[in-house]
Design a protein that fits this description.
heterodimer, A: about 350 residues, mainly alpha, two-stranded antiparallel ribbon, 15 helices, B: about 350 residues, about 75% helix, about 0% strand, globular, disordered N terminus, transmembrane (chain A), ABC_transp_permease (chain A)
Chain lengths: ~350, ~350
């Protein structure tokens, strides 16, 4: 969406063209079609309560997808996000247990710092070992999950254990949008702006398209990748705190298996799995799309068992579209170059 | 050091005895010996049986997975294929009225189709395998849910369930291990003694170069994915009979354990490196360590940390060793070059 506003006021046709070739467009239109069709079949799908649920369900995955997109754009991946989310969520419960009167803002800070620390472990291992992040974070996925299980044991924190105003974050609304959803939207916009207009954000794309070239060009690749992992961890930590506010209980299993959903959302959102292209806004829309499917299937009374299969088809469709678009673009580039000669 | 052995053969032996897979086997043997001495009940046939039955699914899938990763690709959809096979098997057995032999044969076909679909997307359309198999991971698991819903089918022939769990004589070794050994031998020969297998290494090292030397890249990759599909199906059938229950969630999470074991066994995630004995060692190491610690009443949570720690260590350690070797070499160079008196022999 940001691409429209950012498009310079050159010729109108080229602005239009840019709009229609933007990577977010296929997934955004899929989302719109899904919502419209579901609404036609069952108007109650967009009743105030259902749309609030819809937004709440998407919130956490949106933040996780934005965080993951940062890392995937650098040609890495973080599979340990589910465990980080779980650790921070349980940590949040613990903090409220020990300091019941702690200011809520401070809890957010603690959660993000904690997540950032865990992310920095990933980042340091990845940048020092010169081994793909897939392997490292698969390892830290086990380690973090193990640490969480031994820390939490069979203990669980329930929403009743937290201060009421903390829980209210995911109940109260502003302009009929839940507070935590607003947080997610603000985060998405902030990160999107950072990625599109700040130098170090652009560097992440350069690193993702060609790490060697980026290094030769003088970009501090190691440092940038490390900070991408830290940022991913911190945002995941934020999602962890929000998770505690949103859901009834947090325990040893919180967030397990969510890593693949998140990677799926990012891929569906048009971020190339091998780095270098895609936008965090796309990733966020991908997350909303995947979250909306659940609600849409229930609203249209389609067998809920179809849900995961549809998610799979969407992921495949997304990468096929991505492939077709990039092939066409490459061919066009070749033709243009041939014309220039 | 004082003896003079011909340097080439000695170098080869040293390399073989200090290689990654050799190290894995040393650790494996030490774990077995230490557990036999210090863990109660570890040294028993019962242990052998339980342990092998437990690692069997991972061991099976690790074989084709090793080949896939050697060729520079990855397959995350294996556990979902196993789940879909299990679901299909359950529904066929409940509703079709076929005998169990035909049901098993048809269920194997599921693996062929799943693998061929992965292979088609990856080779014909040229899509990255990581992304494709994340997609089919969701798709196949989803189809399993569609096929069987949240029901379970449990009325398989008890004789067959018993057969899957039966042991060879008093050894405690499951009869199924014979079948596993055949699969291991098949993939070991395929990878190490056939042009096809050598081609996979070339492919993992550099697809362009492999094309130039005449490896049929697409063809090779396609059949690799069919192979993982078929073996995953076998595991699906095995799990169904072992648990005497067909359901959509059989084998959930298996893909990460398999990949962890394969990488621990010395297969490089970049492709082009690794071997079958190493992978077998990797699988057995994780399996034995987990089992021994469990017997020693180490909490389950510590086991997960150990698995993850092993995986990280096994990939980080080589680069740390390479880095320190390089440092030592450079230091030696610096020491030798200024004086110019030291000859090469002193350092040998």
């Amino acid at each position: 969406m940001s691409t429209i506003t950012h498009a310079p006021a050159v010729r109108r046709s080229s602005a239009l063209k840019r709009f229609f070739t933007a990577r977010e467009i296929p997934v955004a239109s899929a989302l719109v079609v899904l919502i419209v069709v579901t609404y036609i079949i069952n108007p109650r799908f967009l009743s105030p309560q259902s749309s609030k649920d819809l937004m709440l369900n998407a919130t956490i995955v949106v933040i996780l997808a934005v965080a993951q997109a940062l890392v995937i754009i650098t040609r890495n991946v973080d599979l340990s996000v589910g465990a980080i989310l779980g650790l921070v969520a349980f940590g949040t419960g613990t903090v409220f247990d020990i300091f019941p009167n702690i200011p809520i803002v401070l809890v957010f800070v603690i959660g993000m710092v904690f997540g950032g620390l865990l992310g920095s472990i990933n980042g340091m291992l990845v940048t020092s070992a010169k081994v793909p992040a897939l392997v490292i974070t698969l390892g830290t996925l086990y380690i973090f999950r193990g640490v969480l299980s031994s820390w939490a044991g069979s203990k669980q924190y329930f929403s009743g254990d937290n201060p009421k105003e903390f829980g209210n974050l995911s109940v109260d609304t502003f302009l009929s949008i839940p507070i935590i959803t607003i947080i997610a939207v603000v985060i998405t916009i902030a990160v999107a702006m950072f990625m599109s207009s700040v130098r170090s954000g652009r560097d992440l794309y350069a690193i993702g398209s060609d790490p060697e070239a980026a290094r030769l060009f003088g970009i501090p690749v190691g440092g940038r990748v490390l900070s991408a992992f830290i940022a991913c961890g911190a945002l995941t930590g934020l999602a962890g705190v929000l998770y505690t506010s949103r859901y009834n209980s947090v325990g040893a299993l919180t967030g397990s298996g969510i890593e693949l959903d998140v990677v799926a959302a990012v891929v569906v959102g048009g971020v190339a799995i091998f780095g270098g292209s895609g936008t965090v806004a796309g990733a966020a829309i991908g997350a909303v799309l995947l979250a909306t499917i659940t609600g849409a299937l229930t609203a249209t009374r389609v067998d809920k068992f179809w849900q995961q299969a549809i998610v799979g088809v969407l992921i495949l469709a997304a990468i096929i579209i991505d492939r077709v678009v990039s092939l066409r673009r490459a061919r066009k580039l070749r033709v243009d170059e041939a014309k220039d000669v | 050091m004082s003896e003079t052995v011909t340097s080439t053969s000695r170098g080869q032996w040293i390399r073989r005895l200090t290689g990654h897979d050799a190290v894995i086997f040393y650790i494996l043997i030490s774990v077995v010996v230490i557990s036999m001495v210090s863990v109660n009940f570890f040294a028993s046939t019962l242990t052998v049986g339980f342990l092998l039955i437990q690692v069997l699914p991972i061991l099976l899938i690790a074989m084709p997975m090793a080949l896939v990763i050697v060729s520079g690709e990855i397959d995350l959809s294996v556990a979902s294929t196993a789940g879909l096979t299990s679901a299909t098997m359950g529904v066929l057995w409940r509703d079709s009225g076929l005998d169990i032999g035909s049901v098993i044969a048809l269920s194997l076909l599921v693996g062929v189709l799943c693998g061929a679909f992965n292979g088609f997307l990856i080779t014909t359309l040229g899509l990255p395998s990581l992304a494709v198999t994340i997609g089919t991971l969701a798709l196949y698991r989803g189809l399993a849910l569609v096929v069987i819903g949240d029901q379970k089918v449990t009325n398989f022939p008890p004789a067959l369930n018993a057969f899957v769990l039966s042991k060879i004589g008093n050894t405690g070794i499951p009869v199924m291990m014979i079948f596993v050994l055949i699969v291991i031998a098949f993939f070991a020969v395929l990878l190490h003694f056939t042009p096809f297998g050598r081609g996979l290494y070339a492919l993992g090292y550099s697809p362009q170069a492999a094309t130039f030397v005449g490896v049929r890249v697409g063809h090779s990759k396609f059949w690799m994915f069919v192979a993982t599909g078929v073996v995953s199906s076998m595991v699906g059938i095995f799990l169904t009979l072992r648990l005497a229950s067909a359901g959509p969630d059989n084998g959930t999470g298996l893909e990460l354990s398999v990949i962890a074991a394969v990488l621990l066994g010395g297969v490089s995630i970049f492709g082009g490196k690794g071997n079958i004995p190493g992978v077998v060692g990797g699988v057995l190491l994780i399996g034995t360590l987990t089992y021994a610690l469990r017997l020693a009443k180490v909490p389950e949570t510590a086991l997960i940390i150990v698995t993850g720690g092993l995986l990280v260590l096994s990939v980080v350690a080589p680069s740390v060793i390479a880095w320190s070797k390089e440092r030592i070499r450079l230091n030696r160079l610096h020491r030798e070059v200024p004086g110019q008196s030291a000859s090469g022999e002193t350092s040998a």
